[in-house]
TrEMBL record, chain A:
Native source organism of the sequence: Sphingobium vermicomposti
Record keywords, A-Z: Cell membrane, Membrane, Transmembrane, Transmembrane helix, Transport
Name of the protein in its database record: Iron complex transport system permease protein
GO cellular component terms, semicolon-separated: plasma membrane
Top-rank taxon, per record: Bacteria
From TrEMBL, chain B:
MF term (GO), any: ATP hydrolysis activity
Annotated protein name in UniProt: Iron complex transport system ATP-binding protein
Provenance organism: Sphingobium vermicomposti
Transmembrane segments: none
UniProt entry tagged with the keyword Translocase: yes
Function of the protein: Part of the ABC transporter complex HmuTUV involved in hemin import. Responsible for energy coupling to the transport system.
Family indicated by similarity: Belongs to the ABC transporter superfamily.
Pfam families for this protein: ABC_tran
InterPro entries: AAA+_ATPase, ABC_transporter-like_ATP-bd, ABC_transporter-like_CS, P-loop_NTPase
Domain ABC transporter: 4-239
Key words, A-Z: ATP-binding, Nucleotide-binding, Translocase, Transport
């Protein structure tokens, strides 16, 4: 087993991401011939092809990349910070809180007034959740207090979501909420892209800036401090990065699970296994995986379009089975 | 060259007073051993000297700066720390792990320079683990791992080194190697402070011993002055046979004193 970074890891992941992006533009329910696509790209093309490519597939592709990148990166950063390979983006409660905001928008019918009220409310509640996280976790340096505070916030938001389902006036309203919660990139516009992109950019920058502190945490908290790491700053960046980035991503896509959990596991064996070394590969891998999964839901023939969150959950199972088998030395 | 001072240091962990009123001056060029029974406050004292626990009262200075006014990075460059029985959370390569020691010297975004890598290699060979460079640290034996972690602390290249029980998990040969190494560091002008349980090693190698009991510093001086039949009986509750071999005492614990 090699423990050094595979020299081609980053180039291969970039190529895979570009390929996924290209696939996302060219594959879909309506078949478009390469000639028609080429015509649109060069500025010409017919009306229908233009509408499908520029107004439907391009924003969907961009959101797949942006949301997937954030989920992959935040999973990798949290696994490093918490020194727990089972950590994932929802662990600090940001994704549940964002989902609660979205569910409120659906429950009170606000999303019918204007479709962007939903993501705005989702981002607002995920910011409120950071505030609650600060109050609950306090200034302590232990990751345990952060997990406990995150669980408290996530559970409260989960209870709110369950309450809205419980009280929903009719089955259709409940269905609308359920279907949003499953996560999807269907029918998203550029407004969604412009809303998610800045959040994800800020979140990603904060998490990547923490890379070196995460490496030092391999030696535990005191070991990291003795290497000059200011744990409070590191923790602040981690909390803000996850809340802003994941909050922004979930606001436009719904809760898409497992990407943040499995991508770090997929790339880790190809790196030197230090927490900082998996950050960028997880960002790229998350973008590629979610975009590919989104192509999958469009191509798999089902009566209703398959929800993205359902497919990623299904993908998560074999990855964990492989890890389990390795752990039990059956492989 | 670094001097660490404490004055009337009191540390409380929860309700328990772990350190009460410890004043000491630790000067460069010395190998200082901290000894005492379990729970005497040895580890807490060195954590307080590193600013890792906040004292309830009293102060710690590194050279002329109060520790509260120094950033973690400032402290990290001046004092290297080898914690007790460190857990490793990820299966890193030995060379990658030891290179973490260079972190206090790196600017944001900069990578290890050739000079940093030379320092890492030197630290690996001084701790006698250069041959383990390409191995995965979590797959090493306890003794190998302890020496790799010592190399990590040496790689910091700080003028002071504080090591908490560096001899635990080592066979007698490697115990002697590590003590020789710590002594050589001190002779080269560093301040080396180490918590020890082996009184024989403490007596044989240290220039000065601090004997702790119930959070207090009960004796401070040359091994011959600190390790007496009376102090061993009072602090450890043991009877011991003490012989003098040239300049240092030989200590053989012979039994438990029952009160």
């Amino acid at each position: 087993m090699s423990a050094r970074r595979h020299p081609l890891l980053i180039p291969i992941l970039i190529a895979l991401t570009l390929l996924a992006a290209l696939g996302s533009l060219t594959l879909g329910a309506v078949p478009l011939s390469p000639a028609r696509i080429f015509a649109v790209v060069t500025g010409g093309g017919d009306e229908v092809a233009r509408a499908i490519l520029i107004d439907l597939r391009l924003p969907r592709m961009l959101l797949g990349l942006v949301v997937g990148a954030m989920l992959g990166l935040s999973g990798a950063a949290l696994q490093g910070y918490l020194r727990n390979p089972l950590a994932e983006p929802s662990v600090l409660g940001a994704s549940n809180a964002a989902a609660l905001g979205a569910v409120c928008a659906l429950y009170f019918g606000l999303s019918h007034i204007h479709p962007l009220i939903l993501p705005v409310l989702a981002i607002a509640t995920s910011f409120a959740a950071i505030g609650a996280l600060f109050l609950l976790a306090g200034p302590s340096e232990s990751p345990l207090t952060l997990i406990l505070a995150g669980i408290a916030v996530a559970t409260l938001a989960g209870a709110g979501i369950a309450l809205s389902l419980n009280l929903s006036p009719n089955p259709f309203a409940a269905m609308e909420i359920m279907s949003w919660l499953m996560g999807s990139l269907e029918n998203r516009s550029y407004a969604h892209v412009w809303m998610a992109l800045p959040c994800v950019a800020i979140g990603a920058a904060l998490l990547i800036a923490d890379g070196r502190s995460l490496d030092a945490l391999t030696l535990g908290e005191e070991g990291a401090q003795a290497l000059g790491v200011d744990l409070r700053t590191a923790r602040l960046r981690m909390m803000l990065g996850v809340a802003i980035g994941v909050g922004g991503a979930v606001a436009v896509s719904g809760a898409i699970g497992f990407v943040g959990l499995i991508v770090p596991h997929l790339v880790r064996p190809l790196t030197d296994r230090s927490p900082s070394a998996i950050l960028i590969p997880s960002l790229l891998g998350g973008a590629a995986l979610l975009t590919l999964a989104d192509i999958g839901v469009r191509l798999i023939p089902t009566s209703n379009e398959l929800k993205l969150g359902v497919l990623t959950a299904l993908l998560g199972v074999p990855v964990f089975l492989v890890h389990l088998m390795r752990e039990r030395r059956l492989w | 060259m670094v001097t660490i001072r404490s004055r009337d240091l009191v540390v409380r962990l929860g309700r328990h007073v772990a350190i009460s009123s410890v004043s000491t001056l630790l000067e460069p060029g010395q190998l200082v051993g901290i000894i005492g029974p379990n729970g005497a406050g040895k580890s807490t004292l060195i954590r307080a000297l590193l600013g890792l626990v906040r004292p309830e009262s009293g102060d710690v200075w590194i050279d002329d700066s109060a520790i509260g006014g120094l950033s973690r990075k400032d402290i990290a460059r001046r004092v290297a720390y080898l914690p007790q029985g460190q857990t490793l959370h990820w299966p890193l390569l030995v060379e990658r792990l030891v290179a973490l020691g260079r972190m206090p010297h790196l600017g944001p975004l900069s990578r290890l320079s050739e000079q940093d890598e030379a320092i890492v290699d030197a630290a690996l060979s001084r701790a006698d683990v250069l041959h383990l460079k390409g191995r995965i640290a979590t797959e090493l034996s306890g003794g190998e791992r302890a020496r790799v972690l010592l190399a990590r602390a040496l790689a910091v290249g700080a003028p002071a080194l504080i090591a908490d029980e560096p001899l635990a998990a080592l066979d007698p040969g490697h115990q002697i190697d590590v003590m020789d190494l710590l002594k050589a560091e001190a002779r080269a002008g560093s301040l080396v402070v180490t918590v020890l349980h082996d009184l024989g090693m403490a007596a044989r190698y240290c220039d000065r011993l601090l004997l702790m009991d119930k959070g207090r510093l009960v004796a401070d001086g040359k091994p011959m002055e600190v390790l007496t039949e009376q102090s061993l009986a009072e602090v450890y509750g043991i009877s011991a046979c003490i012989e003098v071999d040239g300049d240092w005492p030989l200590i053989l614990p012979t039994g438990r004193i029952k009160n």
